[in-house]
Amino acid sequence: MWYLDESSGLSGSGVKRPMSIAEIAARIDVGGRLDRDEARELYLDAPTALLGQLADRMRLRKHPSGIVTYIIDRNVNYTNVCVARCRFCAFYRPVGSSEGYTLGFDEIYRKIDETIQLGGGQLLLQGGHNPDVPLQWYEDLFRGVKARYPDFRLHALSPPEVIHISRLSQLAVPDVIGRLIAAGLDSIPGGGAEILVDRVRRILNCYNKATADEWLGVMRHAHQAGLRTTATMMYGTVETVDERLEHMFRLRDLQDETGGFTAFIAWSYQPQHTELGGAEATGIEYLRTLALARLVLDNFDNLQSSWVTQGGKVGQLSLAYGANDMGSVMIEENVVRAAGAEYCMDEFEVVRNIENAGFTARRRNMHYDVLGAPIFRERAVPRMLELAVARADGRAGEAGDLRGYAARSASGRKAREGQ
Length: 419
Ligand code: SF4
Hints:
single chain; alpha/beta; four-stranded mixed beta sheet; four-stranded parallel beta sheet; 15 helices; disordered N terminus; binds iron/sulfur cluster
């Protein structure tokens, strides 16, 4: 914590005292680094407008050009079958469920074709912890993608999925990452972080899929292997303010160590249809959390707006609370929609929101390199006014090409024997 004493000339008592919010604010503006007590004080007591102004000024120092970026990619959930059973998740289906699905390679290639038509160059590929999808399946899929679309990028498999594959294949995490990179993995998304505090993870039943140390460990290995990754936070379940801060400071520490994170994305827990239930955090809580993240995570260049969970209007407002990126144009969404949120913005709408807020809109890639002006100003692209789903016809079941891979679960083995 920063203290003022007599020698500073600002306190006449000679007794050290905590800094006031105004003093903390003044220090941030000249590049001072927040500690946890100060971050807590700001979060709990600073006026929302002041938090926004501080975060906006830090955003401006990092991005003086006035550019707000976004990416055209597609969020594909290759399977909803999952053994982890997180209490906050409305997306997964247990092994053997008649509603479980695993996409086939051809279905994924078709989604890539559609993404390229819209000007996109990347898939965000994540899914459940399916015991019947082995490492070889991912390797074959990634190689298949790269053979067909050499320039297309794969932002795939969050840390808990990497850990799941490591356990399934009985290979160490660095070996799994190495094999996935050799097959075509370009970057790892920061999903599955929830709150990086094991007390919270135990309550949410996501401790077994990855402890806080394990999640950070995967990211450390990925950064050491040369990958850039994102980091996320899902807040608003059972965590305290201090635990939210613990999460941010653990990310800041790892970023100090590796510099491998490209961006931070925070979203509020979406409670509908989940075992945990409860209520969603409000828009002000989102904006305060986002602004605080911008101030604590002073070594992160990019903060995304989570308009997918907050809606377009709060999403736009987040550009005044520290965000400099609108995330992805939404083509397909399955996970957040399962929990009740179904916001959709295509490129036209994302750009309209950026420009209306006074910024210049630019497309980017996964490394946050600017690619150019909005694609719809360069050529005609179809409007995407409805979100696509994993399978348009709602079919469940495995695609036939999984037949060639060994299943681990009893129901999976039986199903494949019967095929
Ligand atoms: S959040 Fe992910 S790991 Fe947890 S139950 Fe849902 S699909 Fe499985």
